[in-house]
């Protein structure tokens, strides 16, 4: 993981047993009030992702909209897709 001061976090990880490579990033803006996290996955053996290609994406965000209101959402796009949101 690469974690430069005040510039987010960046990573590359692998799962050799499942033949997957993941790379991603996480950023916070305005202190901790706004945050984004994204990760891409590449599979090199028996992995079906977006439209049958060996690639998948996942991500999410968290926003503090007010004193009593937070918005969070996340999603995944691979062979299937899903999205979730909570206020």
In short:
The protein has 87 residues and is mainly beta.
Write the layout of secondary structure elements.
Layout: E1 9-15, E2 20-29, E3 34-43, E4 55-66, E5 69-77, E6 81-86
Antiparallel strand pairs: 1-2, 2-3, 3-4, 4-5, 5-6
Principal-axes shape call: flat
How many E strands?
A: 6
N- and C-termini, Cα separation: 30 Å
Total DSSP helices: 0
Model regions low in confidence, pLDDT < 50 over at least 5 residues: none
Strand line-up of the largest beta sheet: 1-2-3-4-5-6
Computed CA radius of gyration, to the nearest angstrom: 15 Å
Please tell me the total number of domains: 1
Core attributes:
mainly beta; 87 residues
What does this protein structure show overall?
The protein has strands at residues 9-15, 20-29, 34-43, 55-66, 69-77, 81-86. With 87 residues, it is an all-beta fold. It has a 6-stranded antiparallel β-sheet with strand order 1-2-3-4-5-6, with no helix packed on it. The radius of gyration is 15 Å and the shape is flat. The relative contact order is 0.16.
